[in-house]
Amino acid sequence: MVEKQAVAEYKQERITEAAQKRFAHYGLEKTTMNEIAEDLGISKALLYYYFKDKESIFKEVVLKEQSYFCTHMKSLIESNKQVTIVLKDYIEKRTEYLKMLLNLGKLRYEAFRATKPLFADLGRIFQEHEKKFVKTILKDALKKKEIANIDVDEYSDFFISTLRAIRLYELDRKELWDKGNIDKEIKHKHLLFTEIFLKSIQSK
Protein backbone atom coordinates (compact mmCIF):
# COMPACT_ATOMS: atom_id res chain seq x y z
CA MET A 1 0.00 0.00 0.00
CA VAL A 2 2.79 2.39 0.98
CA GLU A 3 4.76 1.42 -2.14
CA LYS A 4 1.76 2.07 -4.40
CA GLN A 5 1.24 5.48 -2.81
CA ALA A 6 4.92 6.34 -3.32
CA VAL A 7 4.70 5.36 -6.99
CA ALA A 8 1.54 7.45 -7.44
CA GLU A 9 3.18 10.47 -5.78
CA TYR A 10 6.26 10.07 -7.98
CA LYS A 11 4.13 9.96 -11.13
CA GLN A 12 2.12 12.99 -10.03
CA GLU A 13 5.35 14.86 -9.38
CA ARG A 14 6.65 13.97 -12.86
CA ILE A 15 3.41 15.16 -14.43
CA THR A 16 3.54 18.41 -12.43
CA GLU A 17 7.15 19.10 -13.44
CA ALA A 18 6.48 18.46 -17.12
CA ALA A 19 3.31 20.54 -17.09
CA GLN A 20 5.08 23.43 -15.34
CA LYS A 21 7.61 23.62 -18.19
CA ARG A 22 4.83 23.66 -20.78
CA PHE A 23 2.77 26.23 -18.85
CA ALA A 24 5.83 28.47 -18.58
CA HIS A 25 6.43 28.25 -22.33
CA TYR A 26 2.89 28.28 -23.75
CA GLY A 27 0.67 29.36 -20.87
CA LEU A 28 -2.36 27.77 -19.26
CA GLU A 29 -4.76 28.77 -22.02
CA LYS A 30 -2.79 27.21 -24.91
CA THR A 31 -1.64 24.06 -23.12
CA THR A 32 -3.64 20.86 -23.64
CA MET A 33 -3.77 17.60 -21.72
CA ASN A 34 -2.75 15.80 -24.91
CA GLU A 35 0.47 17.85 -25.15
CA ILE A 36 1.34 17.18 -21.51
CA ALA A 37 0.83 13.45 -22.07
CA GLU A 38 3.05 13.59 -25.19
CA ASP A 39 5.79 15.41 -23.28
CA LEU A 40 5.78 12.61 -20.71
CA GLY A 41 5.44 9.78 -23.23
CA ILE A 42 2.31 8.45 -21.52
CA SER A 43 -1.26 7.87 -22.64
CA LYS A 44 -3.92 10.51 -22.18
CA ALA A 45 -5.94 7.95 -20.20
CA LEU A 46 -3.12 7.59 -17.66
CA LEU A 47 -2.80 11.37 -17.35
CA TYR A 48 -6.54 11.65 -16.69
CA TYR A 49 -6.21 8.94 -14.05
CA TYR A 50 -4.10 11.32 -11.96
CA PHE A 51 -5.59 14.68 -12.94
CA LYS A 52 -9.10 15.44 -14.18
CA ASP A 53 -8.02 18.46 -16.28
CA LYS A 54 -5.17 20.89 -16.95
CA GLU A 55 -6.53 23.32 -14.34
CA SER A 56 -6.03 20.63 -11.68
CA ILE A 57 -2.40 20.24 -12.76
CA PHE A 58 -1.92 24.01 -12.81
CA LYS A 59 -3.33 24.18 -9.29
CA GLU A 60 -0.80 21.56 -8.15
CA VAL A 61 2.04 23.56 -9.75
CA VAL A 62 0.90 26.73 -7.97
CA LEU A 63 0.60 24.91 -4.63
CA LYS A 64 4.20 23.76 -5.05
CA GLU A 65 5.30 27.35 -5.69
CA GLN A 66 3.31 28.49 -2.66
CA SER A 67 5.24 25.96 -0.60
CA TYR A 68 8.54 27.48 -1.81
CA PHE A 69 7.26 30.94 -0.91
CA CYS A 70 6.28 29.77 2.58
CA THR A 71 9.73 28.27 3.11
CA HIS A 72 11.32 31.59 2.16
CA MET A 73 8.99 33.48 4.50
CA LYS A 74 9.96 31.22 7.41
CA SER A 75 13.61 32.08 6.76
CA LEU A 76 12.73 35.77 6.61
CA ILE A 77 10.90 35.60 9.95
CA GLU A 78 13.83 33.79 11.56
CA SER A 79 16.26 36.48 10.34
CA ASN A 80 15.32 38.64 13.36
CA LYS A 81 15.23 41.84 11.30
CA GLN A 82 13.16 44.89 12.23
CA VAL A 83 9.46 44.72 11.43
CA THR A 84 9.76 47.55 8.86
CA ILE A 85 12.35 45.56 6.90
CA VAL A 86 10.55 42.21 7.21
CA LEU A 87 7.18 43.52 6.02
CA LYS A 88 8.74 45.34 3.06
CA ASP A 89 10.73 42.22 2.19
CA TYR A 90 7.48 40.31 2.36
CA ILE A 91 5.92 42.71 -0.18
CA GLU A 92 8.94 42.26 -2.48
CA LYS A 93 8.71 38.47 -2.35
CA ARG A 94 4.91 38.50 -2.65
CA THR A 95 5.19 40.60 -5.82
CA GLU A 96 7.79 38.21 -7.25
CA TYR A 97 5.44 35.32 -6.49
CA LEU A 98 2.52 37.08 -8.23
CA LYS A 99 4.69 37.86 -11.26
CA MET A 100 5.78 34.22 -11.44
CA LEU A 101 2.15 33.12 -11.26
CA LEU A 102 1.06 35.45 -14.07
CA ASN A 103 4.06 34.48 -16.22
CA LEU A 104 3.50 30.80 -15.55
CA GLY A 105 -0.02 31.01 -16.92
CA LYS A 106 0.99 33.47 -19.68
CA LEU A 107 -2.28 35.09 -18.81
CA ARG A 108 -4.02 37.87 -20.66
CA TYR A 109 -6.81 39.94 -19.09
CA GLU A 110 -9.58 37.86 -20.68
CA ALA A 111 -7.92 34.55 -19.75
CA PHE A 112 -7.44 35.72 -16.18
CA ARG A 113 -11.10 36.63 -15.85
CA ALA A 114 -12.06 33.22 -17.26
CA THR A 115 -9.93 31.43 -14.67
CA LYS A 116 -10.87 33.69 -11.74
CA PRO A 117 -12.59 30.86 -9.77
CA LEU A 118 -9.38 28.82 -9.92
CA PHE A 119 -7.22 31.71 -8.70
CA ALA A 120 -9.79 32.64 -6.04
CA ASP A 121 -9.63 29.11 -4.66
CA LEU A 122 -5.83 29.15 -4.60
CA GLY A 123 -5.86 32.62 -3.05
CA ARG A 124 -8.06 31.51 -0.15
CA ILE A 125 -5.66 28.68 0.69
CA PHE A 126 -2.63 30.95 0.48
CA GLN A 127 -4.23 33.78 2.45
CA GLU A 128 -4.42 31.67 5.60
CA HIS A 129 -0.68 30.97 5.42
CA GLU A 130 0.03 34.66 4.89
CA LYS A 131 -2.03 35.67 7.93
CA LYS A 132 -0.01 33.27 10.09
CA PHE A 133 3.26 34.73 8.79
CA VAL A 134 2.21 38.33 9.42
CA LYS A 135 0.87 37.39 12.83
CA THR A 136 4.27 35.91 13.75
CA ILE A 137 6.07 39.01 12.41
CA LEU A 138 3.88 41.35 14.46
CA LYS A 139 4.17 39.19 17.59
CA ASP A 140 7.96 39.31 17.36
CA ALA A 141 7.89 43.08 16.80
CA LEU A 142 5.62 43.46 19.84
CA LYS A 143 8.04 41.48 22.02
CA LYS A 144 10.91 43.69 20.87
CA LYS A 145 8.77 46.80 21.53
CA GLU A 146 9.11 47.92 17.91
CA ILE A 147 5.36 48.49 17.64
CA ALA A 148 2.51 49.66 19.86
CA ASN A 149 0.43 47.27 21.95
CA ILE A 150 -2.02 46.14 19.26
CA ASP A 151 -4.40 43.22 18.78
CA VAL A 152 -2.08 41.08 16.63
CA ASP A 153 -4.86 38.84 15.28
CA GLU A 154 -6.99 41.79 14.21
CA TYR A 155 -4.12 43.73 12.62
CA SER A 156 -2.72 40.67 10.80
CA ASP A 157 -6.12 39.98 9.28
CA PHE A 158 -6.55 43.65 8.36
CA PHE A 159 -3.10 43.84 6.72
CA ILE A 160 -3.52 40.73 4.57
CA SER A 161 -7.17 41.44 3.70
CA THR A 162 -6.31 44.98 2.55
CA LEU A 163 -3.40 43.78 0.42
CA ARG A 164 -5.72 41.24 -1.18
CA ALA A 165 -8.38 43.89 -1.88
CA ILE A 166 -5.76 46.14 -3.53
CA ARG A 167 -4.45 43.22 -5.60
CA LEU A 168 -7.91 42.17 -6.80
CA TYR A 169 -8.81 45.75 -7.72
CA GLU A 170 -5.65 46.22 -9.78
CA LEU A 171 -6.00 42.81 -11.45
CA ASP A 172 -9.43 43.85 -12.67
CA ARG A 173 -8.04 46.91 -14.52
CA LYS A 174 -7.66 45.94 -18.16
CA GLU A 175 -5.48 48.96 -18.97
CA LEU A 176 -2.76 47.66 -16.64
CA TRP A 177 -2.73 44.30 -18.40
CA ASP A 178 -2.49 46.11 -21.75
CA LYS A 179 0.48 48.18 -20.54
CA GLY A 180 2.21 45.08 -19.14
CA ASN A 181 3.03 46.68 -15.79
CA ILE A 182 0.37 45.17 -13.56
CA ASP A 183 2.87 43.62 -11.11
CA LYS A 184 4.71 46.96 -10.74
CA GLU A 185 1.48 48.84 -10.04
CA ILE A 186 0.39 46.27 -7.43
CA LYS A 187 3.81 46.42 -5.78
CA HIS A 188 3.66 50.23 -5.65
CA LYS A 189 0.21 50.22 -4.02
CA HIS A 190 1.19 47.44 -1.61
CA LEU A 191 4.32 49.27 -0.47
CA LEU A 192 2.34 52.50 -0.08
CA PHE A 193 -0.20 50.76 2.12
CA THR A 194 2.57 49.02 4.10
CA GLU A 195 4.14 52.41 4.89
CA ILE A 196 0.79 53.70 6.17
CA PHE A 197 0.22 50.51 8.15
CA LEU A 198 3.66 50.65 9.79
CA LYS A 199 3.17 54.31 10.79
CA SER A 200 -0.16 53.44 12.39
CA ILE A 201 1.37 50.75 14.63
CA GLN A 202 4.74 52.30 15.45
CA SER A 203 5.68 52.47 19.08
CA LYS A 204 5.03 55.93 20.58
Short key terms for the protein model shown above:
single chain, 204 residues, mainly alpha, Tetracycline Repressor, domain 2, 10 helices
Task: Explain what the structure shows.
The protein is built from 10 helices and no strands. The mean pLDDT is 88. The chain has helices at residues 2-30, 33-40, 44-50, 54-78, 83-105, 109-114, 116-143, 152-171, 174-179, 182-201. It has a single domain (55-201), classed as Tetracycline Repressor, domain 2, CATH 1.10.357. Helix content is 84%, strand content 0%. The protein is elongated and about 65 Å long. With 204 residues, it is an all-alpha fold. The longest helix has 29 residues, at 2-30. α2 crosses α3 (44-50) and α4 runs antiparallel to α5.
CATH top level label: Mainly Alpha
Elements, N to C (H/E): HHHHHHHHHH
User: What structural class is derived from the secondary structure elements?
Assistant: mainly alpha
The CATH homologous superfamily name equals: Tetracycline Repressor, domain 2
- Give me the CATH architecture, please: Orthogonal Bundle
Helix content: over 70%
Report the mean per-residue pLDDT as an integer.
Answer: 88
Biggest β-sheet: count, sense, barrel? none
CATH topology: Tetracycline Repressor, domain 2
Straight-line N-to-C gap: 60 Å
Number of domains: 1
Task: Give a quick summary of the entry.
The protein is an all-alpha fold and 204 residues long. It has 10 helices and no strands.
Set out the fold topology.
Blueprint: H1 2-30, H2 33-40, H3 44-50, H4 54-78, H5 83-105, H6 109-114, H7 116-143, H8 152-171, H9 174-179, H10 182-201
Helix pairs in contact: 1-2, 1-4, 2-3, 4-5, 4-7, 5-10, 7-8, 8-10
